[in-house]
Amino acid sequence: MGACSIYLTLSLLFSFSISSSSSSFPDQDTFRRCLSLRAPLSTNLSQLLHLPGTPSYNYLLNSSIQNLRFTSPSTPKPLLLLAPADALQVQASVLCCRTHGLPLRVRSGGHDYEGLSYRSEKPTDFALLDLAKLRSISVDIERSSAWVDTGATLGELYYRIAEQSSTHGFPAGNCPTVATGGHISGGGLGPLWRKHGLAADNVLDAKLVDAKGRILDRAAMGENLFWAIRGGGGASFGIIISWKVKLVPVPPTLTAFTIKRAPEQGAIELVSKWQTIAHDLHEDLFLKVNIVSVEGEERKAEAVFNSLFLGDCDRLLQYMERSFPELEMEEKDCREMSWINSTLYYAGLSHGEPLESLLDRGLQPKEFNKAKCDYVMKPIPTSAWEAIWERVAEEGAGSLYMDPCGGKMSEILESEVPYPHRKGNIFFVQYLSTWEDSGIGVENEHLKWTGRVFDFMAPYVSSNPRAAYVNYRDLDLGKNKGISTTYSEARVWGEKYFKGNFKRLAIVKGEVDPENFFSNEQSIPPLLDGDDLRAWS
Ligand SMILES: Cc1cc2nc3c(=O)[nH]c(=O)nc-3n(C[C@H](O)[C@H](O)[C@H](O)COP(=O)(O)OP(=O)(O)OC[C@H]3O[C@@H](n4cnc5c(N)ncnc54)[C@H](O)[C@@H]3O)c2cc1C
Ligand SMILES: *[C@@H]1O[C@H](CO)[C@@H](O)[C@H](O)[C@H]1NC(C)=O
Ligand SMILES: *[C@@H]1O[C@H](CO)[C@@H](O)[C@H](O)[C@H]1NC(C)=O
Ligand SMILES: *[C@@H]1O[C@H](CO)[C@@H](O)[C@H](O)[C@H]1NC(C)=O
């Protein structure tokens, strides 16, 4: 009842302030005129600009909202939507928004857990720049590299690489519909990270439109800005148009397995052991574990061990026998496959689905979700695992997804790119709650679940700061959910995401976007020349 009335008041407030402030925006014709002057002659304006109340606006806005929490009528909507088809149209869009003092949100694949790519937490005027049309990919096998536009998804990139070679791959996330725009600018972790690092560790060059509307490549933007966009989180430094990525070698045959264990099969002891060895295994061997609830009459949870090994079944069996015999992995568990098929397998498609599924931008079912995460630096006591088990089993509200660190990740310096969570971490854990029912009561239950698990985990995870991963964006990490305007406000979440790199990010931001044109609730604040650095430390 209480929650319901708050909800009503808020939605009234939102619609009031949107309609009242939109009158301050220069009329749509002025904006349209600006675009027609700035954009290349060949531009079809009705494909670039979409206004509220039109079918194309509704369709486009909705097209890649991945978290259904932010489709509600009370979610602040953009004043206008821009769907550029090339870099010059992005440039024109940026320049016209700047001229009209209209803040810009940029969206590539729309997977941001807090929806910051297409909504604002507080009602303000903004335009939405949607990059879904920017998705060309050109693969150069001879030079082991590829240029990929930021609106292209990981699935599209994987598919295009595999079209040309079965022994090249790219180390990035599991979910094919995540786009390279947000993913790589926030880091990008996946089953190859112990061997090859993050997606952001494998970027050779990039093109971006900066706050002055210039199109810059690595040489033109300079090494500071190029450093910042490789893990500093999208949306603070400009609109990234495309990445040049380094392809990595993969063997023709990889081996995957999925082994499920219930508590009566020793699941809790297995997870206890896993956490002491997974980060130390050979870097060819990625072995993750999820703790998920099992549907059924009785509420239960089980451990799902998932591996990807860069080699054949025989060698994998030897490694497993030596390092983790308790799991009792057997030859029949092996699934030998090509790298590209392993990307399907990790996307949950292991029943002979065609490779073209990787190109399906609607593959990921849309759902309501809330995620939080932690980095773990020392093994968690068995008694705590038992308690975690109960929380997953009895409430059935969410799951734990754990990725082992180590290998290449421990060799890369914390300051190499903005993503700082390197040596010393044994695994990374995501607490993810998903649901399908839009009731506010249901939402509260799920938000509470993630909050409770997060609180429970506090003694066992990294501290000072309690580290977090910017690609698993979480607005609870800040003091208030509004835009952080000062460094000390932003530091609260900024040092969790970036540790010592946060200050350097703010300095770069001050150099390239001193007026803070590219901003959202969790964008990097600019540190300007006149600011007292000592007050910052
Ligand atoms: C189902 C699901 C699975 C996931 N799996 C993984 C995983 O395996 N590994 C992993 O590391 N992460 C994973 N993530 C997190 C994912 O990497 C991040 O949410 C990522 O930022 C999404 O990128 P996007 O372009 O799809 O999202 P968007 O919502 O479009 O963008 C995310 C952020 O980047 C900004 N941005 C987007 N494009 C640009 C651009 N071109 N220039 C500048 N800024 C830009 C946006 O403004 C926003 O702040 C997953 C998320 C979901 C929902
Ligand atoms: C411009 O785009 C609209 C909408 O897609 C289309 O109907 C129209 O024919 C296009 N105009 C030209 C000149 O191509
Ligand atoms: C938005 O997308 C969702 C999920 O794909 C769909 O169920 C819904 O009907 C769409 N809404 C609009 C207004 O298009
Ligand atoms: C890969 O997957 C495709 C489609 O599911 C299948 O036809 C093919 O046999 C698989 N190949 C390998 C080497 O795994």
TrEMBL record:
<comment type="similarity">
    <text>Belongs to the oxygen-dependent FAD-linked oxidoreductase family.</text>
</comment>
<protein>
    <recommendedName>
        <fullName>FAD-binding PCMH-type domain-containing protein</fullName>
    </recommendedName>
</protein>
<dbReference type="InterPro" id="IPR036318">
    <property type="entry name" value="FAD-bd_PCMH-like_sf"/>
</dbReference>
<dbReference type="InterPro" id="IPR006094">
    <property type="entry name" value="Oxid_FAD_bind_N"/>
</dbReference>
<keyword id="KW-0325">Glycoprotein</keyword>
<dbReference type="Pfam" id="PF08031">
    <property type="entry name" value="BBE"/>
</dbReference>
<dbReference type="GO" id="GO:0071949">
    <property type="term" value="F:FAD binding"/>
</dbReference>
<dbReference type="InterPro" id="IPR012951">
    <property type="entry name" value="BBE"/>
</dbReference>
<dbReference type="InterPro" id="IPR016169">
    <property type="entry name" value="FAD-bd_PCMH_sub2"/>
</dbReference>
<feature type="signal peptide">
    <location>
        <begin position="1"/>
        <end position="24"/>
    </location>
</feature>
<dbReference type="InterPro" id="IPR016166">
    <property type="entry name" value="FAD-bd_PCMH"/>
</dbReference>
<dbReference type="InterPro" id="IPR016167">
    <property type="entry name" value="FAD-bd_PCMH_sub1"/>
</dbReference>
<keyword id="KW-0285">Flavoprotein</keyword>
<feature type="domain" description="FAD-binding PCMH-type">
    <location>
        <begin position="74"/>
        <end position="250"/>
    </location>
</feature>
<keyword id="KW-0732">Signal</keyword>
<dbReference type="GO" id="GO:0016491">
    <property type="term" value="F:oxidoreductase activity"/>
</dbReference>
<dbReference type="Pfam" id="PF01565">
    <property type="entry name" value="FAD_binding_4"/>
</dbReference>
<keyword id="KW-0274">FAD</keyword>
